[in-house]
């Protein structure tokens, strides 16, 4: 039984994910009449989305012609972090033809950040990566109205509230654009080409400057009514805890995130509870999550304790999500995933301990396979999905 997607979108996604296929194979896979399929292919070839690609291997009669995505299709994929910009340009098969990554301060505002994105894409164009973009996908680290293409009151993105990101990118690059939360695009990327490949029900937990959760249900991202489903970073963990960037007290993000871990590590260094962190603080004036990870790998007890405490907080919140949603997998990603198996083991332990056995007996909790590439991979998928749905 075919899905309710338009035939042209199904067809183009199949060519994206599988590569060149014969007309006979496409007809078999899509379960449509030959007449309808040929008419749709003729239209997509005429409009520049698909192209003929030689002759297929014989299946016993007249050999069918292969069809592929137009090699000139190009998608821009952008993953904005609080301290970084990742930009990639891909072909229709989502293979990167250009990629750039650099440090940035998202708090400098949307005009400055998006202007830099424009400059990086102009550089890719000048280097021959594309002539015209087919669509743009972007992820941002805050709540997003997916319907409107704008961030909404993002706690760690001052100046971005209601900025028309989708409209800006579409106008500047002459193509459709899609805007989503960074945890969602990472989840999309991980399902396309990572640990959750083809898994229909899973949680992707992004732990970085902020904490968010991309939710997959029945093969689709679940965004909720207004687009902010999965904002687990602002679930209260400790009513007596520190003030969060959202203005509330004791949120998960306030207790364990890049900023929270740096705060606790700095205190441990200042009190000399951690010789490793004290040495790093003396040498550079600051300590970071990376210092904690390196200290833990050297056996520093305080660094290990900080990671385990963070894992317990995350695991406690995820145990609630497991009881509520009953996912078939949990994937841990984002910048703090570099804390590795100490963090992962603590999250697993708490999830397995606090959730019912029926929900956890076949529940893998794993690290992201794509790592820092999850965001741009997912942004490219969303850009291509948008373009294929609008193909005419």
TrEMBL record:
List the PROSITE patterns.
Answer: ROK (PS01125)
Q: Which domain of life is it from?
A: Bacteria
What Gene3D superfamilies does the entry give?
A: 3.30.420.40, Winged helix-like DNA-binding domain superfamily/Winged helix DNA-binding domain
Pfam families, A to Z: ROK
Note the InterPro entries from the entry. Answer: ATPase_NBD (IPR043129), ROK (IPR000600), ROK_cs (IPR049874), WH-like_DNA-bd_sf (IPR036388), WH_DNA-bd_sf (IPR036390)
The family line of this record is: Belongs to the ROK (NagC/XylR) family.
PANTHER family tied to this protein: GLUCOKINASE, ROK (REPRESSOR, ORF, KINASE) FAMILY
Designated name of the protein: ROK family transcriptional regulator
Q: What is the lineage of its organism?
A: Bacteria, Bacillati, Actinomycetota, Actinomycetes, Kitasatosporales
């Amino acid at each position: 039984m075919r899905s309710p997607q338009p035939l042209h979108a199904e067809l183009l996604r199949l060519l994206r994910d599988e590569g060149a296929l014969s007309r006979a194979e496409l007809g078999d896979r899509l379960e449509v009449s030959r007449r309808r399929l040929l008419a749709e292919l003729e239209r997509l070839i005429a409009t520049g989305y698909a192209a003929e690609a030689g002759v297929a291997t014989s299946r016993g009669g007249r050999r069918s012609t292969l069809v592929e995505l137009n090699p000139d299709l190009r998608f821009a994929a952008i993953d904005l972090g609080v301290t970084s910009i990742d930009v990639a340009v891909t072909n229709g098969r989502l293979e990167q033809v250009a990629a750039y990554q650099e440090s940035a301060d998202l708090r400098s505002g949307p005009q400055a950040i998006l202007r830099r994105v424009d400059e990086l894409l102009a550089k890719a164009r000048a280097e021959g990566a594309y002539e015209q973009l087919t669509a743009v996908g972007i992820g941002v680290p805050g709540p997003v109205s997916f319907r409107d293409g704008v961030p909404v009151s993002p706690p760690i993105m001052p100046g971005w509230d209601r900025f028309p990101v989708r409209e800006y990118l579409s106008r500047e690059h002459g193509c459709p654009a899609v805007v989503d939360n960074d945890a969602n695009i990472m989840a999309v990327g991980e399902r396309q080409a990572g640990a959750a490949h083809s898994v229909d029900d899973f949680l992707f937990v992004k732990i970085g400057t902020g904490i968010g959760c991309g939710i997959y249900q029945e093969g689709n991202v679940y965004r909720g009514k207004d687009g902010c489903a999965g904002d687990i970073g602002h679930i209260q963990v400790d009513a007596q805890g520190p003030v969060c960037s959202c203005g509330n007290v004791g949120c998960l993000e306030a207790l364990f995130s890049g900023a929270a871990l740096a705060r606790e590590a700095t205190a441990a260094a200042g009190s000399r509870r951690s010789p490793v962190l004290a040495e790093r603080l003396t040498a550079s004036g600051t300590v970071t999550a990376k210092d904690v990870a390196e200290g833990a790998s050297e056996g520093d007890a305080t660094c290990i304790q900080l990671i385990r405490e963070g894992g317990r907080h995350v695991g406690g919140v995820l145990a609630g999500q497991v009881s509520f949603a009953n996912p078939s997998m949990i994937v841990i990603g984002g910048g703090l995933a570099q804390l590795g198996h100490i963090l992962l083991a603590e999250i697993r332990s708490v999830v397995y301990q606090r959730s019912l056995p029926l929900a956890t007996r076949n529940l893998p909790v794993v690290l992201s396979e794509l790592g820092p590439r999850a965001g741009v991979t997912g942004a490219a998928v969303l850009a291509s999905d948008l373009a294929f749905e609008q193909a005419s």
